[in-house]
Structures are given as C-alpha cells and as structure tokens.
Amino acid sequence: MSKNPGQTLDVLVMSPRGSFLELLKDVLKGYYIYILHQKKTVEELFDDSSAQISPVVAIIDGQDGTAKTVEIAQTTKMTYPDCSLIVLHSAESPLNFEDLKKQGVKTVLHIQYDREFITDTILEMAPIEIVGEDIPITALMPVDLRDIEPGLDINFDIYVHLPANHRSVVLRRAGDLLDERQIQKFKNLKQQMYIKKTQKDEFFAFARRVLSLRNSPLPMAMTEKFHRAKAEVQKIMNQLLNSAATDYAEGKLIYEKCQGLVAEFDLLVDRSTEELHEEISRYTNNTRSYYHDSICLAAYGAFFAQLLGWDKDKRLAAALSGFFHNIGLAQMPTSIGNRPVEEYTSNERAEYERYPERSVNLVKAKKVPLSQDISDGILQHRENSLGTGFPKKVLAEDLTPAGKLMAIAFQFMELTSLLEGRKTLTPSEALLYLRDNVISGETPLDLVMISQLAKKIRA
Fold first, then answer.
1. pLDDT tens, 2-42?
2. What's the CATH superfamily of 226-456?
3. Where along the chain do the CATH 3.40.50.2300 domains lie?
4. Both ends of the chain: CA-CA distance in Å?
5. Could you tell me if 265 and 295 are in contact, meaning their C-beta atoms sit under 8 angstroms apart?
6. How do residues 151-177 score in pLDDT, each as one tens digit?
7. Distance between CA 318 and CA 243 in Å, rounded?
8. Where in the chain is the domain with CATH 1.10.3210.10?
9. Does the N-terminal peptide bond of residue 142 adopt cis geometry, omega within 30 degrees of 0?
10. Cβ contacts of 306-311, under 8 Å, gap ≥ 24
11. Which helix (DSSP H) or strand (DSSP E) does residue 9 occupy?
C-alpha cells in the first residue's frame, strides 16, 4: 500500500449480487485507483484468476446471514491472509458482529446507513493519493476554522466545494501560506473549508502546532476532536444495529456514551446568543449524510433549546433526540438504494415514513433508557401543526414542545446543508425563511417557537 500517484490497488468484492458491485462502484466513484474484482462464490476464490490479483481490502456482502458470511470471511482470509476484511450488512439479514470479528473481519458496516464510512474505512486500510482537480466530495473532510492560524506554512491542500457546479476546487496547495484576509473571507461567507481525508494526519499535526503557538490549554484541536467524536457516534450506531443479544447494563452504557458525546461536542455549555450563533454556523454548509444529520440535529436541538431558555435536562434530551433520530432509516429495504425520497414509489414512501418510529423502537430494543422528551423528539421530528406529517399525523394540540423544537431543527438542517444545484442558506436566512413561510401558511411549524428563534439569530 502506498500513496504513489498512478498506482492502482486491487479490492476484492465477495458477493453473488450484481447490485452489490454496482453499489460499491457508486460509493467509490472518483476513486480511480481502486480496481474492483468480484467473486460470486467461495469456489471462485480457488480459480486461476485469483492468483492474478493481490487485494489489500476485501468487501464482503453480508446480506445472506451470519453463517454464510462467516464461511466467506474464513475462506477469503485463508486465500489472502494479508487482506483486510470489511463486511457490509442490511436490515434484511441481521448479523452477529462478534461471530464475524472472530474470523478476522476488521469492520462491519451497514450498506446504506454507514455509506460515508465505507470510503473512510477503505482509505484507512488502503491509503491512496488522488491527484488532479476532480476530487470527489467524499474524499474531503471539513475543518474547523478555529484550527487555522494565518501566516503559517500549510502541509496540506485546501479545498472549497461548489455545489451548484458539482465541483470541489483547490484554493491552496501544501507549502503555501494562508493570510488573515483569506481566513476572514471563509468566516464572513460562512463557507466550509475542506482538506483531503488522506491528509488529515498532516492537518492534525498543523492544528496541534497552532495550539502550541497559542499556548492553548485545549488538549486537542477542534477538527480532530470532531473527527474522533464522529467515529464514536458510528460505534454507538453499530451497537444498535448488532443483532447480538443485549441487556439493561449495555443499554445504560450506550446512554452514558451518548452523554459523553454531548459533552465532547460541548453542546450543553452555557453561551451568549452571539456565541450560539457562531456555534450553529460551524455545523452548517456541510454535505448531508446519515451521520452528518445525526450530529447536526443533536447540535441544533441543544442550541435552539438554549436559545429558548430551556434547562439543561431538556437541552440534553434535544441533543439525544438528534443523535438517535434517523437510525430507523437503517431498516429501509436495500432495494431502495441511494435514490432521493422524491423518486420513491408510494410503497417505498410508506416504508420511509416509518423511520422515526423505527428509530425509537431500535434504541429501546437495546434497552437504552429514553425519557419521554427524547422519545417525543425522535418520534415527532417529522410531524407538523397541520397533522399531515409522519409517522402518526399528530395534530398541533398533541405535539409536545420537544417534538415542535426538533421539527424546526430538522427543517433548519435541510436549508443550511449543502445540496447540489441550490444555494445554501445561512442560519439567520434559514430561520427567517421558515418564520415567513409559517406566517404565510406554507410551512406548518410552531409560529411562536420559530419567531423566538428568528429574533435571536440575526445576520
């Protein structure tokens, strides 16, 4: 394995399904260095063509259950002992992750819910250097501008993403200097700065240098802190999707880990309105994914609750509602794939509208102790005041404050995230847009709550 430009790396795909290979081609679009080789059965591992490839990673289709997947993992590891194994699973065939890891499987990921971690995991196991201007957005990671100091040499490339043009553009190359004017421009435009994921170690070293020069008491830079915390969120979701039996002690442990993440993200720190505006802005203007939505909705829920004067228990409940709100999407049929909701059939739409309730049920099935506020926040974040939302079509008078808050936070997240082909709104623009639409009757949210938030967060 190396990052040498022009080199290709073999990736073995173990699956009888053509659709599985097509999914991986889509996930790895733009990663031209990875060459995918599909084997449909374990018998094919013993044919002559197997000796002609040297896979550094094997991606195994886990959709046929634990026993079959264990057999494939054993045979693959025997054939290619130096190959790292990844198993992708779905809701149709739950897996016992512990049984797989006993066979040398390093990582078990959900085909759809963990989609963004598929590329991250492969990049970790088989590092590459993508050269040229056409860098896929999934190969980039956002950085916190608080980790940047003007006047220092950078040893990483800096990018900006242009959703309207479907492109990511390099602004500065390793070896360049960043001046105060350039950094301020990012801040003023509320624009996200990106680096290559393959250069994260270089960036983390730079950020630690910045902390040292500032004599900062912080033990870790903000970008590295967020990156590690996001990986912890994935581990928690992984526990929720593991079919292995659990007990109340493990459920309590999951809850405590989530409380730790709330603290790690500093979501309950008391802040001024101006400071909250700044914090909210840090989470905007990012590419959406299941984990992006989980973390951002946790942040918006907690920050909005503080703007409304709620106590810390309710702010914690809002944050935990955000973390758990969309785990039910992991139970969507794999056949739906990565298509946008607008393209769903009526039956697929009905399945989709069950996800808030499935989220609550998945978390409770793992014996995680949920307060009523947390359950309401998860269950009602797609409801509205007209009773036309989902999953229960709850009427306005039956919506709880937690549900109303998370419904606003969810629509705010949609407006402030990157979406190809449209302008991303700033926090103040998004809240004013929602308030005006509620007044005109176009958006059925709680008028009092959205008006209070729009008044607090101004441009």
1. 455 557 999 999 999 999 999 999 999 889 899 999 999 99
2. Hypothetical protein af1432 (1.10.3210.10)
3. 9-125
4. 48
5. yes
6. 999 999 999 887 667 778 888 999 998
7. 27
8. 226-456
9. no
10. 306/270, 306/271, 306/276, 307/273, 307/276, 307/452, 307/453, 307/456, 307/457, 308/405, 308/449, 308/452, 308/453
11. strand 9-14
Q: Which of 136-140, 194-198, 225-229, 395-399 has the highest mean pLDDT?
A: 395-399
pLDDT at 236 over 80: yes
Residue 110: name the closest of 273, 274, 240 by CA. Answer: 240
Q: pTM for the whole thing?
A: 0.88
Q: CA–CA separation, 408 vs 450, rounded Å? A: 7
Strands annotated E in 186-328 = 193-196
Q: Give the tens place of pLDDT for each residue, 273-318.
A: 999 999 999 899 887 889 999 999 999 999 999 999 999 999 999 9
Q: Which CATH homologous superfamily contains domain 9-125?
A: Response regulator (3.40.50.2300)
179 burial level (CB within 10 Å; 0-12, 13-18, 19+): exposed
Quote the pLDDT of residue 75: 96
